[in-house]
Amino acid sequence: MRRGKSTTCLPADNDRHLRNRQMLFLLVAPSAAAALLITLVPVLLLVRMSLSSVSRFGRVGDYVGLRNFTRLATDPLLPDIALRTVIWTGSVVAGTLLIALPTALVLNRRFFGHGLAQFLVLAPWAISVTSMSVVWRRVLSDEAGLLNRLAMASGLIERPIIWLGSIPASFGFEIMVAILVSVPFSTVILLAGLSSIPTDLSEAARLDGAGARARLRFVTLPLLRPFICVVLIFNVAYVTNSFPIIWILTQGGPANGTDILVTYLYKLAFTLGRLDEAAALSIVMLCVLGALTVLMLRMLERPAYA
Amino acid sequence: MLKRSLLCWCALLPLIALNLFPFAVALDTIHRRGSDGEVSAFWIDMWHRTELGAALLNSLVVAVSTAALSTLVALPAAYALSRWRFRGRRAASEALLGSQMLAPIMLVLGLSQMVAAAGLTDTTLALIGLYSAFQIPFAIWMLRGYIDAIPMELEEAARIDGASRLQILGLIVLPLSVPAIAVTATFAFITAFNEFVLALTILRSSPNFTLPIRINALTAGRYAVDWPDVMAAVLVASLPVMISFLWLQRYMLRGLRLSLGST
Questions:
Q1: ipTM for this model
Q2: Is the pLDDT of residue B125 over 90?
């Protein structure tokens, strides 16, 4: 089928052609149906809720036009939260790439204990973000905990600190945990990319007199570009939507000081019971995300030498 | 070689230390629990106090079902995307990658209404359905890369020998994709085993909780958290995934390379 041209088939082929199309439909239909069920149906429900007044128990009432959206627009908390989301995503994605790229470069080499090192670098991926966050919450809220003892022993601090008490410290640690959680997956993708680069290319550059740094800059990094793009796309998506870390460490507190859009969305819907506004916020976020996705797919399509 | 190995290890050491830190904290917390009773007694009591058994069972059921269901549905679609040339094929490939942007949390409100309308609130069945559906695009993407790498000539040779389409699928494509299927299913297993937001929203009653929700419930909104118990629960919850990850690690790189190569 691969080389058959569907547009110019002979009459005798028509029957086979039709059966082929039926087969194709059968193969793809279940996946397509599942995808529609979990995107189209909830989106339509969200649109309806965002244009109505909804009780806190989810009963959809009267049509209210754009009232929920104007309420959102005048929500005094939202600008700060949106800005914090951008900071959150930007710093976590940048931090992840800055750590994952050198890590992948090191892991791409052969050395003693390579397998063990790779396992230890990638292992956090397997642990649920929930568990990770719960452990870090313990670390940061425990006066006699390991972090405080280590910091005091090394003379960094004089008395134990409850790290989750202040907003900047909490948010900073949340960013750090998010980076630690994202590094393994990014490293794996970059490692897959590195191992697909033929070694003779870099070998040829070496014979032409290119040093290690020049080889990295002019051979490895340009060839790695599509993989870096994939890492960026996946990470922007995961980090923007990353919920458990902030929810478990601080629930967006103190005083909404560490809320990002998704935690605020969840709070609006399931803690404050303002379901209609939450639906409106979901719609807005979906639109922004859609635009961002199209933009990033364009970026991925650009040829590697550009 | 020795010098290079040392250098490599030194470069990775800070990251590895940070990765191992949570385990150190967990063990340290359990160790400092105030030395009443024996170690085995602590673990047995912990198991009962935290209702970990039921949660572990729920998680395993949900994760295994999700792995099976999502791979089963994705496999034919991946084969079609790999072997058929049709209009909209390119758009379908882009949609696969783009759909990774769509996280459950954005739709969680609509999804919970949908689940409620279907009368499935507070059931693990709802979770299995949603997890599978969300996992399908990634599964198709993974599997397609593998199937692309199966030489077309094998199938053509079989066709010339008179094999039917179904025979080709069953006797050639399927056996050759077994490693791919295993990797894809393991990915789905890990994702479903660790998912948090949807489970938090849909599950209400304690006997239905999955592990992440159980662990969260042990800490959230309580004045006195029994931290040694929590840490032991975290260790138990990490075990099944660690084991599957050990296995996955061997095949993962090759698989991702194939999948990424075809985008």
A1: 0.86
A2: yes
